[in-house]
Design goal:
Elements: E1 2-14, E2 17-28, H1 38-58, E3 65-66, H2 68-82, H3 93-103, E4 109-118, H4 124-133, H5 136-142, E5 148-155, E6 160-169, H6 174-183, H7 186-203, E7 210-211, H8 213-228, H9 238-248, E8 252-262, H10 268-278, H11 280-286, E9 293-300, E10 306-315
Parallel strand pairs: 3-5, 7-9
Antiparallel strand pairs: 1-2, 1-4, 4-6, 5-6, 8-10, 9-10
Length: about 350
């Protein structure tokens, strides 16, 4: 099995005029075929961005900002390659560049790297970025004078994972900025996750989960740690979070946790929940009939990646109050009227 990489760069010299430089690189990689789920594809996309920005940081270059416009074009091309509708190439590159420049006239140049790895290969993103950095043309795009980026990742029926990364010099358009602000509204994303999970539970005839402030605080703390890089994408510290919940609510008897990352976009919350539904372990938490409370924490990292944590809690019913030993009093309406108290004033 082989892994291909390809890069291309265009410079805008005027309306509709560009210069193209194309290089194809072939590197042999041996691995057995395997399946890739949507959660892993999201992880590959996130890792590609992180690794590329890490390479730029080592070269004292600013991090690339994720732009939804570029991401849409990259994903569309990647889907076409993975689906066999387009050969593994930069076919349609000029059209993508023109579409981006039409939507954002500040864009003056664009680069594009493409590659693939076998589905069974480990560290797919690291392998692709490593190959790109060993290729002069790919490295030129990664370390180029670019400010914006967008990535597409898709799994093909041929057992490969494909990636397309677009780089652009320019500034985000007002519409892109507005869209990005809406895509990265953390509070709105938290509400969307709860709504979507409750919609899924309703489809399974399960009661809705009620938002809980303590669970949200604990989820947000964990998410902030992952977004800052202090904590890896994991369930590290889960037992401590459960202990904190029990401290705040002694009736808490069980807790579940789902975490995820995703890229900004109009369907970030929906695709995150769908990824959880597609995973048996995550779905088990979502369908837990014993859970009644939930809390969601969302944070957007500097790289643009969105981190999610959702906590689920089972709370035991409060014990009944102890029986009163006081003398039973008749209801007020049946209680004899008190004799008025008379104050006697001596003469």
């Amino acid at each position: 099995m082989k892994a291909f990489l390809s890069s291309v760069m265009a410079l805008a010299h005027g309306p509709g005029v560009m210069a193209l430089a194309l290089l194809l690189t072939l590197t042999a990689v041996h691995a057995a075929p395997g399946a890739v789920d949507t959660q892993e594809l999201a992880a590959v996309r996130r890792q590609l961005l992180q690794l590329v920005n890490d390479a730029r940081a080592k070269a004292n270059l600013p991090a690339l900002t994720v732009d939804p416009l570029l991401g849409e074009q990259a994903q569309r091309h990647c889907d076409a390659i993975a689906g066999g509708r387009t050969p593994f190439s930069h076919e349609g590159y000029a059209e993508r560049f023109a579409a981006i420049r039409t939507a954002n006239p500040t864009v003056t140049s664009m680069g594009e790297n493409i590659g693939f790895q076998d589905a069974a290969a480990r560290d797919k993103a690291a392998a692709m970025v490593g190959l790109w950095m060993r290729s002069a043309s790919h490295k030129k795009n990664i370390l180029g004078d670019f400010a914006l980026t967008g990535m597409g990742v898709a799994a093909g029926a041929d057992g490969r994972v494909y990636a397309v990364q677009i780089f652009c010099a320019g500034t985000p358009t007002a519409n892109a900025k507005k869209a990005m602000e809406s895509y990265t509204d953390e509070s709105a994303l938290e509400r969307d996750i709860i709504d979507l999970v409750n919609q899924y539970r309703a489809s399974k005839k399960l009661r809705p989960l009620a938002p809980d402030g303590t669970l949200r605080r604990l989820a947000l703390q964990h998410t902030a740690g992952m977004a800052s890089g202090k904590v890896r994408l994991s369930h590290d510290g889960f037992r401590d979070r459960f202990a904190e919940l029990r401290k705040a609510n002694p009736l808490a008897a069980a807790m579940g946790e789902n975490v995820a990352t995703n890229f900004p976009g109009p369907n970030a919350a929906r695709s995150t929940v769908q990824n959880w539904i597609n995973s048996p372990e995550h779905r088990k938490n979502m369908e837990g009939p014993e859970f009644s409370l939930t809390g969601v924490g969302v944070k957007v990292a500097k790289s643009g990646t969105i981190y999610f944590t959702q906590l689920f809690a089972k709370v035991m019913p409060a014990p009944p109050p102890p029986e009163s030993t006081a003398e039973q009093q008749p209801p007020p309406e049946n209680r004899p009227a008190r004799r008025p108290r008379i104050r006697v004033t001596p003469y």
